[in-house]
Amino acid sequence: MTSQQTFFTDRYPELGKAPVPVEPYISAEYFEREKAEIFKKTWLQVGRVEEIPNPGDYFVKELAVCDTEVIVVRNKQGQIRAMHNVCAHRMNQVVYEKCGNTRKFFCKFHGWAYDLDGRLTGVPEEGCFFDMQREDYGLSQVSCDVWQGFIFVNMQPQPAQTLAEFMKPVYGDVEGYPFDKLTCAFQWTSVVNCNWKLALDAFQEAYHVAYVHGNSIADAIDKSDGGSMRPLDVVCGDVHRRLSLAGNQKSVYGNPKAVTSGGAAAAEALAESAASRPIAAAALRAGMGSAKHEFPLEALPKGVNWTHSKNWLFDINVIFPDFYVSLRPNYYQAYTFRPIAHNKMLFEGRVYYPEMTTAGGRFFLEYMKVALRDVLLEDMSTLERTQAAAETGAKTHMILQDSEILVRHGAHVVDRLIGAAQ
Fold first, then answer.
1. Cβ contacts of residue 105 below 8 Å, gap of 6+?
2. DSSP readout, 81-93?
3. Fold type of domain 44-160
4. Between the CA of residue 405 and those of 38, 141, 170, 303, what are the distances in Å?
5. Which of 408, 337, 364 shows the shortest CA–CA distance to 259?
6. Are the beta carbons of 66 and 39 closer than 8 angstroms?
7. Which segments cross the bilayer (predicted)?
8. For residue 348, how far is the Cα from the chain centroid?
9. Can you tell me the distance from the alpha carbon of 419 to that of 422, in angstroms, rounded to the nearest whole number?
10. Does residue 123 contact residue 18 with C-beta atoms inside 8 Å?
11. How far apart are CA 352 and CA 180, in angstroms?
């Protein structure tokens, strides 16, 4: 940095530049306020429409942060519904299985039956109840809507914003990304003993990449003069945030378009990796031409690689409060950092690729699975240590540099919403 005018943070004076308090990362009382004022009032991503393609398909999602579990189901009309997994009779969980297909939901305690919209349709010995009206005892509905194939739920019966209103201010120009042409190639789930914000923070800045990822992808980044990974650009909205990054196009990981574009892109990616990372080079050669779909850069929405960088690697999109979507030209990562307690969170990571039509394409996916697994393990290696260090109380604040602006914005948004509620 040579001039204060080059700071991203100068665009957002409301964020300030002061050190950020550690207390929200370690306080159980603060977490209870997050549950009440954020998670129980905000749209939360719970899955993809491809998980329930047919009428009667369903999955059950535990939302510990909302003190509930929801059934997400496609009804007979093809609409997606969400309901609390609680029987209206004696409050047993209606569905025990985590996913499946059914014509109706039957409570295993006393046999009450509900249709795919949650209406009560059957009660054994119904005449023994006292003036019971079936329409009053259906499954309790959860607000549910879909954005670009992602299913979201909201615990409020009448959310303050529709899902479209929630998403469009920052992500309207991302709509049209080919989510529907990509399928879940691999996934991971892990419970991590750290605060959810602390975990998300580790993924929403690139300052750490040259250091934490020195053994995996450090050669794939586009480094600044200082040796770290400087963002191309950032966007901080009312609650959402975005960051765009460049990569080393002469590497397999740093040039994600190579496997589907082939040609010059593949030749560039192989320029250095053939010698330095022979397995990566072999995987790329095997996978080229195998993808079921093509993804020309000019066909992507204008909000993807919005700086039009020739060295573009990917865009980080943090959908408030805890959903992270990393968009590349031909694949994307979808990570959820869902809190369980003030010092524990559930990480769910899915990576979506185009379907591969050859054995070579499958080999490429297996290589990328291992490569991304190693990156995730490196990221996770710091989290529980950082949480333990924060809880010592040795430091009350953390100091952030300009490239960590998304960390600053996240802390600011959470504190603003909780403060407004108080």
1. 71, 94, 95, 113, 114, 115, 116, 139
2. EEEES--TTT---
3. Rieske Iron-sulfur Protein (2.102.10)
4. 21, 38, 16, 20
5. 364
6. yes
7. none
8. 8
9. 5
10. no
11. 10
> Six-digit token pair at 130?
């006292």
For residue 211, give both structure tokens: 């250091």
Give the per-residue pLDDT at 213.
82
Confidence at residue 227, expressed as pLDDT on a 0 to 100 scale: 66
- The reply to whether 44-160 and 176-421 are identical in fold is no
Neighbours of 388 (CB within 10 A): 12
pLDDT one-digit tens code per residue, 133-179: 999 999 999 999 999 999 999 999 999 999 999 999 999 999 999 99
Residue pair 81/59 in contact by the 8 Å Cβ criterion: no
Per-residue confidence at 224, pLDDT binned at 50, 70, 90? low
Q: Give the strand pairing for 344-353 and 397-398.
A: unpaired
Tokens 């977490």 found at: 31
Distance CA 263, CA 366 (A): 22
**% residues pLDDT > 70 (the chain):** 97
Distance, CA of 153 to chain centre: 14
Nearest alpha-carbon partner for 204 in 22, 406, 26, 379: 406
**H or E, element range at 312:** strand 312-319
Asked if 335 and 348 touch (Cβ cutoff 8 Å), the reply is yes
Is the Cα dihedral 10, 401, 232, 294 positive or negative?
Answer: negative
Is omega for the bond preceding 321 within 30 degrees of 0, making it cis? yes
Query: CA-to-CA distance for 347 and 325, rounded, in angstroms?
Result: 13
Per-position DSSP letters for 154-194, written without gaps between them: ESSSS-SS-HHHHHHHHHGGGTT--GGG-EEEEEEEEEESS
Match 């030209």 to its residue by tokens.
329
pLDDT of residue 4: 41
Instruction: Read off the DSSP letter of residue 4.
Output: G
Smallest Cα–Cα separation from 138: which of 109, 163, 117? 117
Phi, psi at 221, each rounded to 5°: -100, 155
Domain ranges of the chain: 44-160, 176-421
Could you tell me the CATH superfamily of domain 176-421? Naphthalene 1,2-dioxygenase Alpha Subunit; Chain A, domain 1 (3.90.380.10)
> Backbone phi, then psi, for 246, in 5-degree steps?
-105, 155
